[in-house]
Amino acid sequence: MRKIVIVYDRMGMGHLRMAKIIENILKEDNNVEIILTAATDFIDTADCRFAVKFWNYGIKKNWITILDLLINFGLRKFLMPVMDVKYTKKVYTHLDALQPDIIISTFNVINKALGTYAEEKGIPFHIFVLDIAIFLDLANPYAKHICYFDETAEAIRNYDFNTTYYTNKINEKVTPLEKIKYVIKYYKDYVFNSAKIQFT
User: How far apart are CA 43 and CA 177, in angstroms?
Assistant: First the structure.
């Protein structure tokens, strides 16, 4: 029996709904065991729990622009590499306990770690992209992507998978020095160079 782990999160936007739809489809196969798990189950830290609560509160208050600026853009631009090096070991530990044969993600943030783990284990990894917009962590060179919108699929096809975020593998064995180098390279690629382009 194959074990399929479906990763979602509790941050609104239909991640859990899509995970449930996938689960219901896959349930028709009696040879699979399906486990739904939230990204915050992997990490389960105070800052992640706060981010989930803040996001959901902001959605209820219709703070769409604020959430976009702070989380969708600000967090990704400045905190993404720190989160990668800080939480990847937790992701690996959680996956090792689950022992998946297939990983499916309807979320983002930890897709880099999920993809690296899946590639190392030689198991399939699928990302269901629910948004029309595409961010770094919604694309993975190892994954098969399933998209709602043709524009999103086209954007993924045009991604440069030779940049720092994709070429630097962060797993549970990376050294502190390698982590520091990754963070510096990330800021060089996505913060300093992009700022230079914007102001020249």
Answer: 22
